[in-house]
Amino acid sequence: xxxxxxxxxxxxxxxxxxxxxxxxxxxxxxxxxxxxxxxxxxxxxxxxxxxxxxxxxxxxxxxxxxxxxxxxxxxxxxxxxxxxxxxxxxxxxxxxxxxxxxxxxxxxxxxxxxxxxxxxxxxxxxxxxxxxxxxxxxxxxxxxxxxxxxxxxxxxxxxxxxxxxxxxxxxxxxxxxxxxxxxxxxxxxxxxxxxxxxxxxxxxxxxxxxxxxxxxxxxxxxxxxxxxxxxxxxxxxxxxxxxxxxxxxxxxxxxxxxxxxxxxxxxxxxxxxxxxxxxxxxxxxxxxxxxxxxxxxxxxxxxxxxxxxxxxxxxxxxxxxxxxxxxxxxxxxxxxxxxxxxxxxxxxxxxxxxxxxxxxxxxxxxxxxxxxxxxxxxxxxxxxxxxxxxxxxxxxxxxxxxxxxxxxxxxxxxxxxxxxxxxxxxxxxxx
Length: 431
Fold this sequence. Notes:
Elements: E1 2-8, E2 15-22, H1 34-48, H2 50-53, E3 57-62, H3 66-71, H4 78-87, E4 91-96, H5 104-111, E5 145-153, E6 158-165, E7 171-178, H6 184-201, E8 206-211, H7 214-221, H8 229-241, E9 247-252, H9 259-270, H10 292-302, H11 309-317, H12 326-336, E10 339-342, E11 345-349, E12 355-358, H13 361-373, H14 382-392, E13 394-395, H15 399-409, H16 411-416
Parallel strand pairs: 3-4, 5-8, 8-9, 12-13
Antiparallel strand pairs: 1-2, 5-6, 6-7, 10-11, 11-12
């Protein structure tokens, strides 16, 4: 197998080749089908070029789509299941191959594969671990504080943010604006240094540091080499600061789990501050419903008229609502063409000239209960309920939506309903 990793410029016309890779299939891999060989080559490529593919969108140009085969495979054996999990951390987009010459280099590398290749180990660490035993100790003694940091560098400015989390779960946010030119990696280091110094001021000896920059985290852990001259001094300074701690550990954290520090850094980079400003700790609340919902409920309680009140007034007396605009009057005239008044009862005329009685909210609620779970109720879904109600001769404007919501809230329908075993998308055989 062989692969070529290339990088396009902003115009997309030029391509700079970064890396060539090739390997020879092992004895067991030679017995794979063609599509499984493509999947194996893709997994092997992601393991070898992880540092390039982790932070960029990768276009996969191939004769067939191995991603679709993995996601829609009917037999999830151990090999395919492992491949799916290993590919989940990358942003890979399949692109159709438009020309044969585009894969000429990859085909050449596949024909000149290395002979002394050692196969990669796709096993997950600690997968044979049965249990973990912990010893009893003081819950406060040696329990680590947590530090989340992040930096932001954009066209407006540069900012850093850090959140220190105590033993009890209390959050202490810190943020600063950087008034000098720096890169995003320099801002990440600045945020880490600020958070570590804050922890030192609080006499914290055991600390867990979390950041969403893999470059900074793995350089501080010593797994990656620091080559950028701008970052060497930052790393040296942090290594001197961590000597003040009894135990400090660095962990990589995905960006979606580091939202608090990211928000603080973005806030500091977007706001222009002339002098240091002291802002009290931010208290965050959770609203489960929009603020206007309570006002709407009060208006509905005070409004004693049914939903068809304006239509009834126009059909009966040709009166428009108060404060109605010209467009509102035109819309009302168009709506009333489908309604018929018989005495004091308003009817809705269907396309087949069948008349449906218009009911208010109280009557609609009773009809929903009777049709869905009454004596003759069948616990049907929302669309079937709406058709049954119209066959019974009743109508209101939000009938179909009310039927769907009522069926979703029915407790018995959720308990005794049939389980849906049909896959969400159609399955296609790729081999």
